[in-house]
Amino acid sequence: MDRIRVRDTSPDRHHAPVHPDLERALQPVFDDLRATSAPLPRRVDDGWPGDARGDDDDFTARAMLWGRDGGQGVLVDLRLTLPEEIADVADRVQDWTIEELWGIAPTNWPRCPRHPDSHPLQARVRDAAAWWVCPRDDVPVSLVGSLR
Question: 42, 48, 86, 138 - which has most CB atoms within 10 Å?
Fold first, then answer.
């Protein structure tokens, strides 16, 4: 008889550490959250590569980000370069942060210094590094992990 694997993703479950490549990509984004006094999620492992999810998932590391109103998944494709991983998870953490700020503070995190009342910055790879970039005029503002 085949067994169906059910994954417990509740915030109270004891989890192994987050995959080291995902943790390395998350760290600069969490540094930016701290530097800007934004909320910090609790991160919880949600599966390492090769955990019986399928061939494509052998190259994906996952975690859950938990905050005051629940959780949101974040993942990284382990075939990407580190700057690409950082920019990709920055985009996902930005989504979590905007949801977390909803109703209690401005949601344009990280705020674009060129247009502070308009839009947040976007994470993009430039010159082999992950940058926060103004989406309106495409100007790099800060390396991800270096917001002040």
Answer: 86
